[in-house]
Amino acid sequence: MAGPAYRACKQCSLISEEDTCPRCGGQTSREWQGFVAVVDFEKSEIAKRMSISANGKYALKVR
Question: DSSP letter at 59?
């Protein structure tokens, strides 16, 4: 039994199950690699480097 098909936004890298990004409205892709879960974007160095301005799960690479 397969789980949900996660997709990543090509613009903001947010991971969701939607065909369009619920955060920015961008197109999503099923081809992505790795992810980071941001819990406190204001204190996260990784979030600053990736220009993330909200908590959530983000793909590291999206095609």
Answer: E
Question: pLDDT tens digit string along 7-63?
Answer: 999 999 999 999 999 999 999 999 999 999 999 999 999 999 999 999 999 999 999
Distance between CA 30 and CA 58 in Å, rounded? 13
Rounded to two decimals, what is the model's pTM? 0.89
What spatial distance separates the first Cα and last Cα of the chain, rounded to whole Å?
26
Distances, alpha carbon 27 to alpha carbons 18, 49, 56, 62, in Å: 9, 22, 17, 11
CATH architecture of the domain 7-62 equals Single Sheet (2.20)
Domain-wise residue ranges, the chain: 7-62
